[in-house]
Amino acid sequence: MRRALDLLVVIGCAGALSCVEGDVLTRLSPPEPVVPRAADDLVDSIGITILRANDDHFPTIELPALERLGVRHVRDWALPPVENAEQVAMLQMLGELGIRSHLIFEPRFDVLPEHFMATASALGDALESIEGPNDNDAGDIDLSADEVIEYLRALRIAIDDAGLAGQVALVDALDIEPEDKGDLSEILDYGNFERDRDRALPALDLSDRKDAARLTCGAKPLMVTECGYSTTDGDTSVSEAAAAKYLLRLVLGHFEQNIARTYIDELMDGPDDPSLPFMAQGLLNIDGSEKPAFGALQRLLELLADEGEPFEPVPLELRLEEETDQLRQLLLQKRDGSYALILWQEVESFDGRSEGDVEVEPRTVLVALDTPAVRIRVHEPLHGKDRVASETDLRELEVSVADHPSIVLIER
To answer: Could you give the residue range(s) of every CATH 2.60.40 domain in the chain?
Structure first.
């Protein structure tokens, strides 16, 4: 039997709470079962590119930052064994912290399939995946589709001959169109595509990109190995404030669309020319100081991390008052039985015409549960670690949702 509705909680962006008596929410239709996904699967789907863990500042800036951030996966360019001693040492240190490596094998850096055994032996369990040639049309080497295919097949043989099939995954190459490579699903463990670093909405529909990637990988899971937002002055850049909002929505939107791994590009701004858009995509400035996106992602990961044995999530009966294309939702569950309902507006946070941030009006979203929650807490990772609001013994609530995630933690 459902208990009578006796409380409406209004949760605003500033954390204000107010109570209203009556049956104002009876216009909601009955809750319906929603099947959640494991919260830790989202955390595990997020990685970041580090671009050569052999720089002088890696031990002093990037390594501590990665430990603070809470990601479990990094992407880097592999170096030839004769040059990679420092890189191996740094990646081993990351491995000791539970951060595993995905390495790009690129012939233009003289990294060949026959180097796989030495690299894998040196890294051990710290190595989880390798990626085929990337940017192979850059520099002095312009590989043909046939050469990329041959290289990927040689990598497959190297992994299998090392007895590491199922332990080290082979990921598709970028920059050769899928239709030019054809079906390579027999040798690939993951498909792969990248997103332009521009002002596009972060959680846009990726169906076309996924369909194209599947021409090569078939039904294998997909990675997005390059994506992010530039924060320098330029016609493809956004403000640091908008980048923080977009980055959170990007990883949530990718997970919602079944992207197995998203590698954010990248941890730290490039050293060459900070005015170049692709040199200003980092979560850290070149001096190591944090941009707003770093703290926002760090808090998201901390809120949802839930390592442990696999479990079967239990459906939660809930209902939102209105569901539109702009209102996005993702339901997750932790091993203790609690749920995380994540809500956000998928709208522009940066206006390319005025070159300024957009003030997005929060929308009030009514949420109804089938039975009262023991406790509900609301967090906004963009704004800080502290919760926005907390209440107990609730069945229905009102959440103010802006253009960044509100995380409603529900204890049953």
So the answer is: 316-411
